[in-house]
Design brief:
Chain A is an all-beta fold. Chain A has strands at about 5, 10-15, 20, 25, 35-40, 45-50, 55-60, 60-65, 75, 85-95, 100-105, 110-114. Chain A is built from no helices and 12 strands. The mean pLDDT of chain A is about 95. In chain B, a hairpin with a 3-residue loop joins strand 4 (about 30-40) and strand 5. Chain B contains no helices and 11 strands. In chain B, strands 2, 4, 5, 6, 9, 10 and 11 form a 7-stranded mixed beta sheet that branches. Classes of the chains: A mainly beta, B mainly beta. The interface of A and B includes residues 102, 105 and 107 of A.
């Protein structure tokens, strides 16, 4: 079945450091790919998405490129801030029989220190 | 503004009791989902619905049930609460329109923290 694997956390960085969170997937076909973010005490919210190969999703300084050849969708940010501290989830759309749901990775906790 | 709400936000109950968690969305979305979040497991799908009177089992549905009598609500019932069901529960909804199928964004509620003693 379709699955998502993302790097184990937690990740701790200093403010203004470069961030990469790795995400790879296994899927039949060409699913849409997503990054969701969960701030402390809140529900998840969409950070960015890409719907086809070579698409780049971007939002709030974060970027991820849909790489079909490496089945990857790594999340990057050039300069993290304390306010980026959160849990990040990679996900893919799982379409079967005309219905759609998301398959999530286990999440990566990011802490950014001042 | 459209939103998705969950109630209660915190609940403590005893083993064996029936518990119902509420989820209400004003997006007028067709799809609604229930997840549980546990350390080391990420988000796991419990049940989901693609419309009124439609319900489907997810990967961890044992001990849970849902019903969809209208578009706005998908209550989650724990038939006989067990300590293993102590978790944070999230409800989500998505449009699944013809133009967005396969690319849908899910909108999440704030979560319910359930403790079963």
């Amino acid at each position: 079945g379709n699955s998502v694997t993302q790097m184990e956390g937690p990740v701790t960085l200093s403010e203004e450091a470069f961030l990469t969170i790795n995400c790879t997937y296994t899927a039949t076909g060409y699913p849409s790919l997503f990054w969701y973010v969960q701030y402390p005490g809140e529900g998840l919210q969409l950070l960015l998405k890409a719907t086809k190969a070579d698409d780049k999703g971007s939002n709030k300084g974060f970027e991820a490129t849909y790489r079909k050849e490496t089945t990857s969708f790594h999340l990057e940010k050039g300069s993290v801030q304390v306010s980026d501290s959160a849990v990040y989830f990679c996900a893919l759309s799982d379409i079967q029989g005309g219905s759609e749901k998301l398959v999530f990775g286990k999440g990566t906790k990011l802490t950014v220190n001042p | 503004d459209a939103e998705i709400t969950q109630s209660p936000r915190h609940k403590i109950t005893e083993t064996g009791r029936q518990v119902t968690l509420a989820c209400h969305q004003t997006w007028n979305h067709n799809n609604m989902f229930w997840y549980r979040q546990d350390l080391g497991h990420g988000l796991r799908l419990i049940h989901y619905s693609y419309g009124v009177q439609d319900t489907n089992k997810g990967e961890v549905s044992d001990g849970y049930s849902v019903s969809r009598s209208n578009t706005e609500d998908l209550p989650l019932t724990l038939e006989s609460a067990a300590s293993s069901q102590t978790s944070v529960y999230f409800c989500a909804s998505s449009e699944s329109g013809r133009l967005t199928f396969g690319t849908d964004t899910q909108y999440f509620g704030p979560g319910t923290r359930l403790t079963v003693l």
